[in-house]
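To: structure subgroup
Subject: Chain for Friday's discussion

All,

I'm putting the inputs and outputs inline so they're searchable in the archive.
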Amino acid sequence: QVQLVESGGGAVQAGGSLRLSCAGSGRTFSSYIMGWFRQAPGKEREFVTVISWTGGTTYYADSVKGRFTISRDNTKNTVSLHMNNLKPEDTAVYYCAAAVRWNSATKLMEGAEYDYWGQGTQVTVSS
């Protein structure tokens, strides 16, 4: 089991950058696939990105490709989301999530594939 705590959210103007972090508890953090999802008010939760156990494979939603970068440091039990060129439509609560099984990109875009979730951190982008 792993507990996840996100941090780094905040308010930024369009075109700005933010870095979100997710800290995981436990000694087995490296055995989890880590993903980021987001949920805007009145909208369904949507996939943002996912990273494999060692960071060798990543997938991104088309809406963030080229602007967001996911990385992980298993020595520090953390996964980060670097967000550049932020847009108002990026405004949402961002959640990190951990999965125990790797799967196809299509399946990993589904929240149901993840076993543990953080509490979320708010990102607000103003125009």
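Points worth raising on Friday:
Helices lie at 105-108.
The longest helix spans residues 105-108.

D.
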